[in-house]
Amino acid sequence: PWRLVFSPDAKLLYVAREDGGVVVWDTQTRKRVRTLGEGGRPAALAASADGRFVVTFDATLQPKDLNRRHL
């Protein structure tokens, strides 16, 4: 199943992949902005209220800091 969540301002859409990576899409241009890290197969996906982090959850929490260039 797909795991999707919008950023707090709805400008970005985060999509969790089967490998635990997260693809970030711009909702206005419909273009991929970036791809973040990898981890286990996510059961859940959440964005922080300030829009700084996206967290995937498999058996552990996998926070991904959106302000860092390399994750």
Q: How would you describe this structure to a colleague?
A:
This protein is mainly beta and 71 residues long. It contains no helices and 7 strands. It has strands at residues 3-6, 12-16, 22-26, 32-36, 44-47, 53-57, 61-65. Strands 1-2-3-4 form a 4-stranded antiparallel beta sheet, with no helix packed on it. A 3-stranded antiparallel beta sheet has the order 5-6-7, with no helix packed on it.
List the helices and strands and how they pair.
Blueprint: E1 3-6, E2 12-16, E3 22-26, E4 32-36, E5 44-47, E6 53-57, E7 61-65
Antiparallel strand pairs: 1-2, 2-3, 3-4, 5-6, 6-7
Keywords:
71 residues; mainly beta; 4-stranded antiparallel β-sheet; 7 strands; 0% helix; 3-stranded antiparallel β-sheet
Sheet-strand content, in percent, reads: over 45%
Termini, distance in Å? 24 Å
Percent helix among the residues?
Answer: under 10%
Which class best fits the helix and strand makeup?
mainly beta
Which sheet architecture does the biggest sheet show?
A: 4 strands, antiparallel
Globally, the shape reads: globular
Find the count of extended strands (DSSP E, 2+ residues). 7
Q: Report the C-alpha radius of gyration, rounded.
A: 11 Å
Number of helices: 0
Mean pLDDT: 81
Strand order of the largest sheet: 1-2-3-4
Helices and strands, in order, run as: EEEEEEE
The low-confidence runs, each spanning 5 or more residues with pLDDT under 50, are none
Provide a quick synopsis of the model.
The protein is an all-beta fold and 71 residues long. It has no helices and seven strands.
